[in-house]
Amino acid sequence: MSRDHVQSAERSDAAAAASAGGAEAPFLELLARGASADAYEQPVLLARAEGRPAERIVALEQAKLLALRVRSELEGRRRREAELSALFETAHDLAGLRDLDAVLQAIVQRARSLLGTDVAYLSLNDPVREDTYMRVTEGSVAARFQQLRLGMGEGLGGLVAQTARPYVTDDYFKDDRFQHTHAIDTGVRDEGLVAILGVPLMLGHHVIGVLFAADRRARVFEREQIALLGSFAALAAAAIDTANLLTETRSALAGLERANEIIRDRSGVIERASDVHDRLAELVLRGGGVHDVAAAVSEVLDGTVEFSEAATAPAEALEVSRAEGHAVRHADDWIAAVAAGGELLGALVLRGHPGLDPVDQRTLERAAMVTSLLLLARRSAAEAEQRVRGELLDDLLDARDRDPRLLRERASRLHADLDAGHVVLAARLDVAAADADQEAASRRRLWSAASHLAATRHGLAAARDGGTVLLLPLEPGDTATELARRTARHLGTAVHESVTVGASAPVGDLAAHPDAVAAAYEEGRRCLDALRLLGRVGDGAAAEDFGFLGLLLAGDRDIGGFVDRTIGQVVAYDERRGTDLVRTLDAYFACGMSPARTKDELHVHVNTVAQRLERVGRLLGDDWQSPARALEIQLALRLHRLSDRVQH
Questions:
Q1: Structure pTM?
Q2: Which of 145, 513, 556, 617 stands the most exposed, by the fewest C-beta atoms within 10 Å?
Q3: How confident is the model at residue 93 (pLDDT cuts 50, 70, 90)?
Q4: Cβ neighbours of residue 239 under 8 Å, at least 6 residues apart?
């Protein structure tokens, strides 16, 4: 359908809604409170149940369709903002990398983080051996999988490389679209992979490798996720190209001593590329605009570079540049498409410069990539600025503002809903800093990562007590424990250090009860202290994970010493003899100290239970079953299990 037809249909829908006599009112209310799609059927169903006139029913149906269209557009924009923020961070991370191994490792780590998959890996083509090999993996545990080499055209990666298009399989072993081989299938089976998405790494028309994201369970990768990984692959290919170019230059400098003049010219070109790279990175960091990028590239390329809207740039050259991912020549000019996620945003045009060095051409292409990020970031700049300056969480923690109406208004400006269920999370780095400056820098990185996470999740974040506190909404079906663990992983990946997260039980109606946030924060801190005392740094947990132990573990207590004094001889006996005394004790107390029920739980003879308990008595003393000793032993067993989790 043409744009004119779409606009005409939208005007017709709007006119119908306007003539509906207030039919749009219930749907506007649903839009305002972010209701689910199913809720939009209720006004129509209610009108039919009440026997309203047919004209009213038709008007409500039209208003519903229009409201659902608006809702879909808003959700798409919110999702795009989150994805663009992740791409922006990726471009910033890659901008500071020079070593190829570091570049590839960063690519795979970010790919896994962006899509939230179990495993991510990257294969590169070897033109000498004419095959493909596994270069970097993240999240992999199978040695055979990590060492795979496969022939061109084999496996899912071979299909991606042949067609230069993304491919996704929901169930690898049931998919016959690609060539299965024994070596590949064995490696994939060892790793336990089920759903796999692969996107090509392209340099021009050539596939240099494949970037994969995979899960060990069935999963449907959405179109937006495929597009997001494709955009990331474009950044990755550019970074690999830069790293390869620098590597080639170093080799040339070492092996071509007799070609000094050529080397000097080449070095000058690379220096220019590095200079513009640094300038563009600086522009991004200090919030420069599109015209700042054009001015910087103009100076480096010694020409005139302008940004043109998509409608005013040469259409044919612009389409070729977008399709190939390279700047193309148009008469005496060069055109580099500015695009992101399939959306064409405009073009950078280098005027009157028909002769262009290949490295300068790449410089123009990278400038177009940075321009696309800046344009997309501008769309949400005002909203992000409000979130950064928000002090709502501090006020909730200190209970300074108790007017529910004002609290809701402030939260609404930050796109947060205080009436929804939330979890308060206390996060802290667990790496000893060399000095105060380094510690402060680490805390700033944690605060930055937490703020970004809170912004994308419609929550709040604040620095507090040497760490960070987050207030995040709890999605339906989610638990505080799962949210704490995801947050620990996300923040740890973002700051490249171990981050421990303690979570409160879910809290709600925060506008009417702001003091609940402070109480929940204290609960989250107790969980955080418990995790650190148990040696589970880098993990996440909620109060529900500890039961009554969550109240006992805060503070400076010698947990290991207590366990050793209470059941240390039993633990040591199991370790020396390979027996099951600890497990037998656990089952014995769980079964109400009944040997008969214990033997059913352990699936052994009752005499075996009796013999094990007799051995326990000799190790712990005759009074081990007295009420006081039994309570201490059960507590020590519980602490022993909790402390042992981190090793499994």
A1: 0.36
A2: 556
A3: low
A4: 94, 97, 103, 107
